[in-house]
Amino acid sequence: MKSDETISSLPLQRGPFLLNQRTLTITMLSIGVAACAAFVAQALIRIIGLITNLSFYGRWSTAFVSPADHHLGAWVIVVPIIGGLLVGIMARYGSMGIRGHGIPEAMVQILTNESRVPPILTLLKPLSAAISIGTGGPFGAEGPIIATGGALGSLIGQLLPTTADERKTLLAAGAAAGMAATFGSPVSAVLLAIELLLFEYRPRSFLPVALASTTATGIRMAFSSATPIFAMPHLTAPGSDALASYVFIGAVIGLFSVLVTRIIYDVEDAFEKLPIHWMWWPAIGAVAVGVVGYFYPRTFGVGYSNIDDILSGHIWGRALLMLCLMKFISWAVSLGSGTSGGTLAPIFTIGGGLGALFGAGFAHYAPHLGVDPRMAALVGMSALFAGASRALLASVVFAFETTMQPLGLLPLLGGCSAAYLISGFFMRNTIMTEKIVRRGIYVPMDYDVDILMRLRVSDIFTQKPLTLKGEQPLSAVREWLLKDGAKHRHQGYPVMDENNDLLGVVTHRDLMDLTTSPQNTLRQIIKRPPVTIHPQNTLREAADMMVQHEIGRLPVMDPHHARKVIGILTRSDLLRAHKRRLHEAHTTAKSLNLIPRTKK
After folding, report:
1. For 302, what's the count of Cα atoms within 13 Å in the CB-facing half-sphere?
2. In the chain, where does the domain assigned CATH 1.10.3080.10 lie?
3. Are 162 and 22 in contact (CB under 8 A)?
4. Hey, what's the torsion of the CAs at 335, 337, 339, 344, to 10 degrees?
5. 8 A C-beta contact, residue 504 and residue 534
């Protein structure tokens, strides 16, 4: 191997750009996906309206109406059952992926299938959800729209040459666009994508999602007004006593989030034990929807008007308690049966109702605290979702964006944080991840900076490495290895020329290969140009290079002299970086007496 050829191949590592041309490409694709998702959202809302009008009123109209004012009498019980049968048939002969509320299914595809959502879901998911909700299912339209937007983003990523990370970004962009197009909440949609779908916080992913969410919101504004979806009277700034009360309410709601999640999965487990095919489960669950809806019609459908009434204080007392109870029964049984629908609207309804009830109790028995039941409803609505999903920031910002009540931000932050704390203490998984974890899939919840990203090569590489000369005969090196090399046993050695410039790297296996003539020089047995690293590179870049080139060591080059070796970095060095992290954590925990001392 010629020295000039070897040196010319030495890569000068300068670290990755924060953003690049590929990021711009994915951003433009995300904007296109968002525009499509926004129009799909408008179409789905109209399809739900059409099915609702046909099922409950026998008229041809796409107006978004509540089924609560129907005049079907006891026959109304049959309507959800028909919808459940149709959803079961679509799941059996179309795709099982339409079952559930959308977000967990998207998470599974991201974690296990490189963000490849089956294309058929792009059609079947919104259609099945429209049938389920339009025939009285107690779900929100947002879940299917989020799932459909995500499926559309994944489909675009599969049709075009993209990486798994890029498909994940497109999927998250579509999902966020679906949420933004439903509620007009672009910031909380981005936060939801970060907290539940992206599993990272990096400009290459959240910037496309942010612009997608903005695009979808803009299109929504063209179809409807820019007013908040949940209009409520202006609130007054809470005092310190009221703020403490809202935090307490959030903590109590956190307990309810644990109870709600466990009941949901207990119902699902009960359906799993039924001795009939799962295709029939949605119809069986729909019996509960029909019966509950017959006695309490407000539980039918998406129920956005219920949330509006709760936040405005138009429903209270016994009526509010019954709404929370009946909505929960209908939703829990139906969702547990595996039908198609969303969870956000039911959670907001139940949480808002519970918060309003607690707030009314404070206002009646402790008026000096200054608790406003409407503010308590706002806190309860978001706190139940924060506790059930652990999407803390998305929950806080969502309540603000959908009501435009800035004075509610502080109570929301306190209440949702308290709910998250209580939920995390009593419940390992969430309403979004329990089903996934049961399948043996690990779902990351803590997003911290990798230790390899925090450290540079200069922090840990071995200086003044043991090197060999290119003109040394292989026989002499073997003799040295057998005699004295055991003291300095390495898996690889940089090979230098007469000017002490790097020629390449030879491994211990290369040196001891008996098929190679011992008369060869080390220069002659170098198999490929060296892959090098510079001190300013991160250990993450070094690890990626080792994996990419299938090598276990990297010569560290002088940044000012491209041919001069100043050290070597090995896989063992990378492990020492992790050992350093564990040592720091152990030392800190021990100093705080978090680790029991062993008895001598």
Report:
1. 26
2. 23-223, 240-438
3. no
4. 10
5. no
Q: Which residues contact 562 (CB under 8 A, 6 or more apart)?
A: 7, 10, 12
Per-residue pLDDT tens over the stretch 373-432: 999 999 999 999 999 999 999 999 999 999 999 999 999 999 999 999 999 999 989 998
- How would CATH label the architecture of 240-438? Orthogonal Bundle (1.10)
Cα 61 from Cα 65, distance rounded (Å) = 10
DSSP letter assigned to residue 456: B
May I ask the CATH class of domain 23-223?
A: mainly alpha
If pLDDT is split at 50, 70 and 90, which confidence band does 180 have?
Answer: very high
Measured CA to CA, the distance from residue 304 to residue 295 in angstroms comes to 19
Q: Using an 8 Å Cβ cutoff, are 346 and 140 in contact?
A: yes
Cα–Cα–Cα angle for 295, 297, 302, nearest 5°? 140
Helices (H), 94-202: 103-112, 121-134, 142-159, 164-183, 186-193
Which run of H or of E encompasses 89?
A: helix 78-93
Q: For the chain, first and last CA: distance in Å?
A: 60
DSSP symbol at 196:
I
Rg (the chain; Cα; Å) = 30
Per-residue pLDDT, 489 = 63
On whether the CB atoms of residues 595 and 586 are closer than 8 A, the answer is: yes
The set of residues, in sequence order, having a beta carbon less than 8 Å from that of 298 and lying 6+ positions away, is 66, 68, 306, 323, 326, 327
In what helix (H) or strand (E) does residue 492 lie, and over which residues does it extend? strand 492-496
**Residue among 500, 516, 509 nearest 467 (CA):** 500
Which uninterrupted H or E stretch holds 310?
helix 304-312
Give the Å distances, CA to CA, from 118 to 89, 114, 594: 18, 12, 47
Residues in the chain: 600
Domain(s) of CATH 3.10.580.10: residues in the chain: 451-579
Cβ–Cβ under 8 Å, residues 100 and 86 = no
Is residue 535 a contact partner of residue 458, using CB atoms and an 8 Å limit?
yes
Distance of alpha carbon 260 from alpha carbon 472, whole angstroms: 73
- 309 contacts 95 by C-beta, under 8 angstroms: no
- Is the domain 451-579 a CATH 3.30.300.30 member? no
